[in-house]
Hints:
There is one protein chain. The chain is α/β, with parallel strands linked by helices. The chain folds into two domains: 11-180 and 292-372, Rossmann fold (3-Layer(aba) Sandwich); 183-285, Rna Polymerase Sigma Factor, Chain: A (Orthogonal Bundle). It has ten helices and twelve strands. Helix 1 (124-138) crosses helix 2 and helix 3 runs antiparallel to helix 8 (278-290). The radius of gyration is 20 Å and the shape is globular. The chain starts with 9 loop residues before the first strand and ends with a helix. Mean pLDDT is 95; it is low at 3-8.
Amino acid sequence: MSTAQITDSSQVLDLTQPLPLDGGQSLPNARIAYETHGTLNAAKDNAILICHALTGDHHVVSNHPKTGKPGWWLRMVGPGKPIDTDRFFVICANVIGSCMGSTGPASLAGDGKPWGMRFPVITIRDMVRGHVALLDALGIESLYAVVGGSMGGMQALSLASNFPDRTRAALVIASTARHSAQNIAFHEVGRQSIMADPAWRDGDYYEAKENGGKGPEKGLSVARMAAHITYLSEAGLTEKFGRRLQNREEKTFGFDADFQIESYLRYQGLAFTDRFDANSYLYITRAMDYFDLAEEHGGLLANAFAKSKARYCLVSFDTDWLYPTADSRNVVHALNAAGLPVSFVELSAPFGHDSFLLDVPALDRVVEGFLGEGR
């Protein structure tokens, strides 16, 4: 039987049984990296699972081991904060397919070599199966709530619909029940930039990197640059950068980073290659593109929630054009059709899709209020 230790630090769970996958394969010897904060009560009914976004990880509060930066949701999680670790036992697990401790393409396969592109294609529901295995190991039958933004919101919806007995509430922020053609298009640009990099070597670049060579850093950097644009708003970009030049008085009439926005994107792209694996980016973006909760349940989104008894809260942002408010409304309508309690709010924030990660006090109030309702 799989075992996991409850402690306020990063831990790993080694699954003793292969993890079944939607693609028909199974993942042997899977490892789930996770972090916990707070205390699990005797009834084991105060647990909140936080699901991370595409390039996130389980370091929701602790410093990132590669960058040294504070946890990605430190402003939201902790004693006395909206997700209060004095009241709740907070769990955050790294998704399978990632490169931050859970089994992914960079992990060693049974032959002792990195999986690379031999790693099976995964889905959001497969990621959630890993989360459920962790809950089993921790002895948690039902969560107080599952919480997630962006791809984390997809996981929250998937857990609440596909494993309806495992959570009593779901808080979904800046997310969607399916990826649109535009979403898929942006991801495909990123994947193609990685695969077009000669250093990608059909995904078999790990040995080269270990010997001082290069992986597809250039392609991954471009992928990050393209994706990062979708996380921001036009108004935010205009206010922060406009058409201002970068450390110069006039244009160079060349192809250096003349504009501040060019310099910013290049920095974001290069910094990303220091902490993320290119193959993981391919696999996780593909999982997001495959996500269609209605398709999983006969083509009708309301069917996805037919067995759920949870209460729901959906939050969108008025400047988020990646997962616009209409996406959240579609989920709300489906929940209404299924007869489930749901609250919904569109918040005003200038930051675009990234608003769920940034300083938006109204979001803090929504999160604190929704989590407080069930106590």
